[in-house]
Every structure is written in C-alpha cells, then in structure tokens.
Amino acid sequence: MRARIVLIVSTALACPAVSLAQIPDTPAGRELAAWLSVFNGANRDSVRTFYQQHYPSAPARIEQMLDFRARTGGFELVKITASTATRVAAFLQERASDQFAEATLDVDSAPPHHISGLRISAIERPAEFAIRRLDPTNLAQAVRAQTEHDATAGLFSGALLIAQNGKPILQSANGLADRERQIQNTLDTRFRLGSMNKMFTATAIMQLVQAGTVKLEAPLATYLPDYPNKELASKVTIHQLLTHTGGTGDIFTPEYETHRLELHTLADYVKLFGNRAVQFEPGARFAYSNYGFILLGRVIEAVSGVSYYEYVARHVYAPAGMMSSGSEPEDSVVKGRAIGYTKQESPNGTWQPNTNTLPWRGTSAGGGYSTVGDLLRFAEALRGHKLLDARHTDLLTSVKVNSPGGGQYAYGFGVTTSNGLHCFGHNGGAPGMNGDLAICDGGYVIAVLANMDPPAAGRLSTFIRNRLPASGDAKPNASQ
C-alpha cells in the first residue's frame, strides 16, 4: 500500500496508533513487536533472518510477505485485545488505509519462545474506531490529499469523481495512461472495468423483464433451448444467474487460457463451457460466477435478436448518455483507452502491460471500458428512471442474497452499508485494472477507475465512502 506520512495520518488513520513500547513485555508480546518491525521495514534480508531465528517452523515465504507488505503498506498497532505469556492478540490498521485486521500470535512456552502460529485476518472496522464523516469541503480536501499521496507513492494511477445529485464535488486524474509514451490520465481516459460490466448486463436483463419478454423464475432453457447441458438449462433460473446462485462456475480455467484469443463471441464461451454440469444444486448458495453472466448475455441476444454489444449500446449507453463506454476488441484502436499495468504477472516485480492477460473482447461478465464521467451518467440514469421504471429499478438494486465475507448482492449489483451509509454498485479487478462505482444515500455517487492492479481504485473508494457526509449540499467547485 503506501508509506505513512504525517499528512495522511490525520485523514486516513483516524485512530491513535499504539507505540511498540506499549506492547506487553511478555514472550508473545516481544515477538509481535519484532514481527511488526521487520514487516514494516520491508527488507528482504531482514525478513529471511526473522523467519530463521523467530519462526523456523514456518516456510520462509519471503516474496509473499513482501508482496503483502506492498499491498498493505505495513500496519499500525491500534490496540492490544488479549495478552498472556504465550499469546497476544491485537487490532492492526493498514497504514494510510481504513482496513482493519486482527492479528493473533502464539509462541512456544519454553525458551527461546519461537513463534508457533501467526494469523492475520481482515475484519470490519470496530465500532470504537468509527470514522468521522466530513462535510463536502473537508471531504474533497481529504480525498485530494489521499489521492495525491497514493499517486506519488505509485499506488494509484487513474481517475476519480465524487458527485452529489449529479454535480461533481471532486474530480481528479493522476498517473500515466501510457508509460512508454508518457501520456497522462485525464477525466476522459477510458479505463477497463473488469466485472463492472455486470451492472450493464443486469440492467439490460431487467429491461427485458420490465417488457415482459424475460421471466426471472424461468429456467435458462426457456431462452436457450439448444444449450448443450440440458440438465443445467432446465434447472438454473434467470434469478439464480443474476445472483450467482446457479452453480454455473467460472470461466478462468486452463481451457480458457488455452483458447483465450479464440473466444470472440458469447456463443464461443458457451461452446467451450456448455457441456459442464452445475457445481452444486442451483439456489443452494452464492458462488461468484462469471460464466453465469456470459449466459445472461446470451439470453439478451436470444430475446432481443441483436448482439449483446448492440443491445447494451442502444438501450443502456445511449439513453444514459454514455458516449465513451464500450467493449470493442482489444486489437481495435480505441481513442483514449489506457494501457493497464500489472505486477501480478511480472516475473521481476516491475510494472508490465497487462496485454497477455486480456480477453479478445470484453463480455457480459466484464472487461469493457468506460470513464468516470460515463459511470456518473449511468448512476444518474438509474436514479432518474431513464433505464427502468421505479419498481424495476428497486427490484434490480435491492438485496437478494448474502455473499461471503458479510456482503450482500442484488441483481448484478453489490450492496454495502459502510459507516451507516447505504450504497449499491459494483467493483472490478484483474491484472492491470481496478474500478468501483458506488451509488449512495444522499444522492452521492463515487466512481474510481485505475489502470493498475487492485486494490488501487477500491482502496480510494472505501476511503471516500467511509467519510461521505450523510446529508448536505455539495458544491461543485473542487475539480482539478
């Protein structure tokens, strides 16, 4: 994540850090202090030595630990929650981020008290450390400082927009859309969306539901009677596909990697995966399924008689005024489309173009592109019932199922309550791309897009949501 500096502590940390000197002077406490010092120092040799001398029973996963350090920026110790001679537990917070973690460290009872177990788990922010909401002016200042810090630290490259009732409170762009040619990101830069396409797919399906041509409880076979696996098609409903409860599995498999550049249409995906059986009884549980949204795209094509891309362009992008959004093939020249940069696929840990990870074309499950301005237009079109009437908008965006980790899911939209604020939207992430759209109480919209690995955009979106005012008029005077 990011290095801690004084400017950010006051806005991001938002709770007092505990000095390492305040850790209990016990065998477990001393080992926790030593681990935090080594982890935050991010020195490869020190990490290796620490494992050898303090945690010899654990595999020395040096690269994984350094990667974890890079993603979190290190930890501040916030509170010791339990302590004995051989065990210590504590709340930690990622530096310059709102994410909390709980750490539990155990040591052997006999000297030299080697670490016998270390567990670090992300947790919801404890209520005692609730973040104070900011008025629009102070919110803009805090977000600008956070964004500039992340960009300077190499942790964010992209664009963001905060608006209330359609009027921007803050707009900014940072970093490079093309590092080789030194082309800057702007508010008009088109960023790849990852799974955020699912919002457009779900909206299109709901338009067909509103028109009476698709039924939510109808099985897939109603619309795709020639689907290869007859049992799956007869059992899995449109509702289950929209809520990731159909058991239809994912697309990112060895078969996909082999045929990635041959998959030009949604029908090509069905040819590749259509004989697969369901992974569990449809409706039994939530399991995120990109393939389920490929199938929804095929339903749109079957019912409308046009390609998924043409339908969405006509019935979602056009009425919303989204003139910079699409899913043109990767070998097409798309003006202003950023190059994505990833370290995830880089053998030497340097930023590399994500070209070799991309599909031939974005799909109904993800991979299109848009701008922060177009995402605001989409949000306002939903709010203003330009895409669906009020009843079907509510049906689209209201909670249907719980998802792992305490989340909730509607139809193609995630639903969150952060610091008492209700939002719906969707994120997207893959090597070299990350984005998030949040449509929140009070008329607020947050759109963040990045042309680098997650959680570059998601981290900033969470930072904003946690400080968003519950009410008040935003003043659209903070653009840059």
Concise account of the structure shown:
With 480 residues, the chain is α+β, with helices and mostly antiparallel strands.
Question: What does this entry look like structurally?
Answer:
- The chain has 480 residues and is α+β, with helices and mostly antiparallel strands.
- It folds into two domains: 6-129, Nuclear Transport Factor 2, Chain: A (Roll), CATH 3.10.450.280; 158-467, 3-Layer(aba) Sandwich (Beta-lactamase).
- It is 34% helix and 20% strand.
- The chain contains 15 helices and 18 strands.
- Strand 14 and strand 15 (414-418) form a beta hairpin.
- The relative contact order is 0.14.
- The model is unreliable at 1-13 and 472-480 (pLDDT under 50).
**Number of strand elements:** 18
Parts with pLDDT < 50 across at least 5 consecutive residues: 1-13, 472-480
Class by SSE composition: alpha+beta
Shape from CA axes?
globular
Number of helices: 15
**CATH 4th-level superfamily of the largest domain:** DD-peptidase/beta-lactamase superfamily
- How are the strands of the largest sheet arranged? 6-5-18-17-16-15-14-13
The first-to-last residue Cα distance is: 24 Å
What percent strand? 15-25%
Calculate the mean pLDDT score and round it. Answer: 91
Number of domains: 2
Give the CATH architecture of the largest domain.
3-Layer(aba) Sandwich
Give the SSE map.
Layout: H1 6-13, H2 27-41, H3 44-54, H4 62-72, E1 75-83, E2 87-94, E3 100-107, E4 115-123, H5 136-152, E5 158-164, E6 167-174, E7 176-178, E8 183-184, E9 191-192, H6 197-211, H7 230-235, H8 238-242, H9 254-259, H10 266-273, H11 290-304, H12 308-320, E10 341-342, E11 352-353, E12 369-370, H13 372-383, H14 390-397, E13 401-403, E14 407-409, E15 414-418, E16 421-430, E17 433-440, E18 444-450, H15 456-467
Antiparallel strand pairs: 1-2, 2-3, 3-4, 5-6, 5-18, 7-8, 9-12, 10-11, 13-14, 14-15, 15-16, 16-17, 17-18
